[in-house]
Write a structure and sequence with these properties.
2 copies of one chain form a homodimer. Chain A is of the alpha/beta class. Chain A is 36% helix and 16% strand. In chain A, the strands form 4 sheets. In chain A, strands 4-3-2-1-5-6 form a 6-stranded mixed sheet. The longest helix of chain A has 24 residues, at 132-155.
C-alpha cells in the first residue's frame, strides 16, 4: 500500500475507526493520485475507488498493484453490496467539512453506517505537512509566478486595460505551468482598494496603483502571490502605507518558524496596523498546497503552533495586499521582496 | 422587498419556517444581486447580510432601500446578538446540499437554533424556473458560444495543440463575455474518448476527432456546448456512432416539453444506444443557469416532470458528447444542430 494510504490507516486505528469514506476529490488525489469523480472507501480489508463509466479507463491507467486499490464501476454495485462495505465496522470516519449535510445523511443510509465519525482531521493533519516533493512543486509554482511578474513589469503600461493584463497572466501560465491556481485579480486605480475586485475594462492611467493577485499550478500544487505596482511616483501617504504593510510582512516572516504561535504573529501585525490608524483586513494568510486555500488559517482565532514543512502565505493587507515566498524558509509561499515603483510614463 | 426575497418568505410561511439562513453565494446573488462572501439571514423581521471589512463598501453600493436588506460587519456582532437573530423562531431553514456537516453544526450552536430544517428546495424550486431576463442572458451566452464555435471552425487545423485551441476559446470569451463558465475541454485523437480529458500539448493530426466542451457567462448566466469535429472525412464506423448520438439528441429534443417525464426521455435514449451495442455514459443532461450544473438532473433517477422555463442541456454521449440549444424552445441550452466535417488538409 502507498505511504499516504498507510498513514491514514494508522491514524484510523488510533481513533478506533474500522472504516472511512473519503469524498473530497483533492484528498483522493492526495492519497491515490486519482484525479476523477468518485468515492474512496477504506473498508476493513480493502481500499476501493468507486467511479463511473467516464473514468474507468483513466483510473485503471493510473493505479499500480502496489497501491492496493480496487476500482469499481458504481453501476455494478448493488444495494446490498453498498450495505456490506462497512459490515462489522463499529465506527466509520468521514470528512465533516467537505460532506454536505445532505450527503452525510445519504451515506449513513446507503452504507448502513452505525456510527459516522468526524475524521477530516486525519487528512488535514497529513496534508498540512508537506514532503520534499510537494515543497519542490510549490517552489516551482512560485518561481513561475516570479517569472510571470518579471514579464508583467515589462508589459504593463498606461493605456492597457485590466483585462489585457489578466489575459497576459493567463497565457503566461498556460505556457509555463498547468495554468492558473485561481483567476488572477488585476485591480487598478479606484478598483485597487476593493479586495473583491473583478477584472474590468478599466484603462491603466498614470498615477494608478495596481494590485495583482495571481498564481499557477505545478503538478497540482499552487502558488499565490500579490504585488502592488505604482505607475509613476507614489505620494508620501501611499509610500507610508506601503511601507507599513511591507514592514509588517517582513516582521511576520521573521517570526514564522517551527513552534511559533499563529495567534501571536497575527496579533503583532494587527497592533502595528492599529497604531498607524490602519486596519488589518481579513486574516494574515493561509496554507497553500493542492488547494489555493487550505489549513492552517493564519488568523487570530487559530490556536495552533507552526511546524516545519507547513506552507503558508504572509499577506498583511489594508489597501494593499502582498505576499511573499522567502526562499530560505519553508513556511511562506512566494518569492522575493521588493518595493516596486514602476515608471513607464516617458 | 424585492420579488425573489418575497417569494422565499412566502414559501417559508408555507413550511412553517420563521427564519432561514442562506449561505450559498449563488443563492445570495440570485436573491440580492450581492456577489460577495457573507451570510444572508432571513429573520422574523429583517433581511440581514453579514459580511466582513473587505466587502462592506461594495455591498453598500449594490443594495437599494427597496431591497430591505440590512448590512452588518461580522466583527461588530456579539455572541449574544448571534443568539438573538432567531429568538422565538420555532423552525429555521437551511440549505442541506450546500452546508457542510461541520457548518451545519456550527450554525446550530452559533445562532442557538431550536429546529434546523432542510429547506434548500425553496431556493431550488425558484431557481429552476427561469424568468425572461434569465433566459435572455442564457440565450446571449449561447449565442456568444455559437460565435466562438464559428471562429474555431476557421481557426482549427492540423499542427495546432489542444492548449492553443483552449487558449483561443478562453480569449474569445474574455473579449465577448464575462469569461468561461468552466475551463474548456479540447480533447483530440485518443484523448477524445476520455470524457475526463485534460487539455494537453497533443498536436492535432489529420484524421483526428476533436471533442470541444465550452461555455461562457453573461450577467452570471452560463452556456454549455459540446461539439465533435472531424479533421478530414470520418470513417463509416465513426459516422454511424456520430449519427446515433445525433439522432438521439434530436429525439430527446423533440420529447422535451412542458409535462414530459425526464425519466422516460432518458430511458428512450438509453435503449436506443443499447440496441446499437453502445452505452449511454453518465446522464443525458443537466440544468443550466447561474451555475453550469444545477437542477434538474436529466437522469434516470430523477422523477420530476419538465416545466416551461426550465433550462436543460441535451447531451447524449458515448464517445462523443454534444449539446444543443433549440431557439424555439426554452428547455435546452445551446444553439444549432449541425454535423461538422472539417477538412482543412489542403
Amino acid at each position: 500500500m502507498n505511504d499516504r494510504l498507510q498513514a491514514v490507516r494508522n491514524k484510523m486505528k488510533g481513533l478506533n475507526l474500522q472504516g472511512m469514506i473519503i469524498a473530497n476529490p483533492i484528498n483522493i488525489k492526495y492519497l491515490t493520485k486519482i484525479d476523477a469523480e468518485g468515492i474512496l472507501l477504506l473498508t476493513r480489508k480493502e481500499n476501493i475507488f468507486i467511479t463511473d463509466g467516464r473514468y474507468m479507463e483513466y483510473v485503471s491507467s493510473i493505479i499500480t498493484p502496489f497501491d492496493e486499490i480496487v476500482i469499481d464501476d458504481q453501476k455494478n454495485i448493488s444495494k446490498d453490496e453498498y450495505e456490506n462495505f462497512f459490515l462489522f465496522c463499529e465506527n466509520v470516519g468521514f470528512e465533516e467539512k467537505y460532506l454536505s449535510y445532505s450527503t452525510y445523511k445519504d451515506f449513513i443510509r446507503k452504507y448502513k453506517i452505525n456510527n459516522f465519525v468526524e475524521a477530516e482531521e486525519i487528512l488535514t493533519s497529513l496534508r498540512i505537512l508537506k514532503d520534499e516533493e510537494e515543497i519542490a512543486n510549490i517552489k516551482r509554482a512560485c518561481e513561475v509566478t516570479d517569472n510571470c511578474f518579471d514579464m508583467l513589469l515589462k508589459f504593463i503600461k498606461p493605456g492597457l486595460t485590466e483585462k489585457q493584463i489578466a489575459r497576459q497572466i493567463h497565457n503566461f501560465y498556460l505556457d509555463n505551468s498547468e495554468g492558473e491556481s485561481f483567476e488572477a485579480i488585476v485591480a487598478s486605480g479606484e478598483n485597487s482598494s476593493k479586495p473583491h475586485a473583478m477584472v474590468t475594462d478599466r484603462i491603466i492611467n498614470t498615477k494608478d496603483i495596481i494590485t495583482i493577485d495571481m498564481g499557477c499550478k505545478i503538478n497540482g500544487y499552487c502558488s499565490d502571490m500579490t504585488r502592488t505596482i505604482f505607475i509613476g511616483e507614489p505620494t508620501e501617504e501611499q509610500k507610508n502605507i506601503y511601507n507599513l504593510v511591507l514592514e509588517n510582512q517582513k516582521r511576520a516572516l521573521d517570526e514564522i518558524r517551527d513552534g511559533a504561535s499563529i495567534k501571536t504573529i497575527v496579533k503583532g501585525v494587527e497592533s502595528s496596523f492599529n497604531i498607524q490608524s490602519q486596519t488589518l483586513i481579513h486574516s494574515l494568510g493561509h496554507g497553500v498546497g493542492l488547494e489555493i486555500h487550505e489549513p492552517p488559517a493564519v488568523s487570530l482565532n487559530n490556536d495552533i503552533l507552526l511546524k516545519e514543512n507547513m506552507v503558508i502565505t504572509d499577506e498583511p493587507r489594508n489597501l494593499f495586499a502582498r505576499k511573499f515566498w522567502n526562499k530560505n524558509r519553508r513556511y511562506c509561499s512566494c518569492n522575493q521582496e521588493r518595493c516596486f515603483n514602476l515608471d513607464r510614463i516617458e
